[in-house]
């Protein structure tokens, strides 16, 4: 949906909700360490027609941080 088209209903009425890091880890983020300074913000895209949503990491540097922390664990937990 980063290209402003919903993959579910083909609407272009997409809301972008920026990731935020707030006190005590609140907001839409992934905490990588002990403090909010280690948090990676996660941007949400929501179709205002059907409600479908996606989450994206905007900064490629943060993707590298996630790889270092979590590695390739898909399907291993």
Explain what this protein looks like in three dimensions:
The protein has 77 residues and is α+β, with helices and mostly antiparallel strands. The chain has one helix at residues 60-70; strands spanning 14-17, 29-30, 40-41, 43-47, 53-56. The strands form two sheets. It has a three-stranded antiparallel beta sheet with strand order 1-4-5, with no helix packed on it. A two-stranded antiparallel sheet has the order 2-3. Strand 4 (43-47) and strand 5 form a beta hairpin. The model has no long low-confidence stretch (mean pLDDT 89).
Instruction: Give, in order, the helices and strands.
Output: EEEEEH
User: Main sheet?
Assistant: 3 strands, antiparallel
What is the percent of helical residues?
10-25%
Number of strands: 5
- Put simply, the count of helices is 1
CA gyration radius, whole angstroms: 14 Å
> What proportion of the residues form beta strands (DSSP E)?
15-25%
- How far apart, in Å, are the first and last alpha carbons? 28 Å
* Shape call: elongated
Please state how the strands of the largest beta sheet are arranged side by side: 1-4-5
- Category from helices, strands and their pairing: alpha+beta
> What does the average pLDDT come to?
89
